[in-house]
Amino acid sequence: MNIYLLRHGETDWNREKRIQGRTDIGMNDRGRMQIRHAADVLASLPVDIEVILSSPLSRACESARIVADRLGYRREDIVVEPLLIERCFGEGEGLTERERRAKYPDSPFGHIYPGMESVEELLGRARKAFDKITETYCDKENVLAVCHGAILFAIMSAATDGGIVYWGDQITLEQGNIHRLIYKDGVVEAAQYSAAEPVFKNIVL
């Protein structure tokens, strides 16, 4: 099974470097352009995307619809999966980096906020999402999950049993980036799409 992971396109909060989390911010025009490009990449692959899953947040749902239209996949067949929702950042949501450091000066690196989902909780949810995909769609070869930066990174980390360190430097996570997990006989290989090549390049675990 190939599991393609697509991060939604840019929002105004992304541009302003505000933490979004579960705050439901829609994509901007640049974000739609990023996703149209990602959709072209997916359409160019010699594979047939059989299932499209999406986080319930609007920026992911719109991204999924854009890709579905490009691939000839029916919008009504997009599966909204609650496990793919972004990490909750509690009281940090909506704050810029400067505002976060000013409001929480004693927080390590200025990014631990009251009410946020812990890394352990996030990785546990990511593992559940990965297991649900591989079990529910075990008869499919190509599945696309449209989601968000933190949960995407967590899925990559959980699926590789920590081979990809959560929020480490092994992968890049810009808006509209595509990653791939190849799952076979309980073994996972990971790759990220390189626009410079353009190919999927394996990630060394």
Sum up the structure in keywords:
single chain, Rossmann fold, globular, 205 residues, alpha/beta, 7 strands, 7-stranded mixed sheet, 6 helices
Describe the secondary structure blueprint for this structure.
Elements: E1 2-7, H1 12-15, H2 29-44, E2 51-54, H3 58-71, E3 79-80, H4 97-103, H5 119-136, E4 142-147, H6 149-159, E5 178-184, E6 187-194, E7 199-202
Parallel strand pairs: 1-4, 2-3, 2-4
Antiparallel strand pairs: 1-5, 5-6, 6-7
Helix pairs in contact: 2-3, 5-6
Instruction: Write out the CATH superfamily name.
Output: Phosphoglycerate mutase-like
- Main sheet properties: 7 strands, mixed
Order of helices and strands: EHHEHEHHEHEEE
Which spans of ≥5 residues are poorly predicted at pLDDT below 50? none
Structural class from helices and strands? alpha/beta
Summarize the structure.
The protein is an alpha/beta fold.
Describe this entry's structure for a reader.
It is a single chain. With 205 residues, the protein is of the alpha/beta class. It has a single domain (2-202), classed as Phosphoglycerate mutase-like (Rossmann fold, 3-Layer(aba) Sandwich), CATH 3.40.50. It has helices at 12-15, 29-44, 58-71, 97-103, 119-136, 149-159; strands spanning 2-7, 51-54, 79-80, 142-147, 178-184, 187-194, 199-202. Helix 2 (29-44) packs across helix 3 (58-71) and helix 5 crosses helix 6.
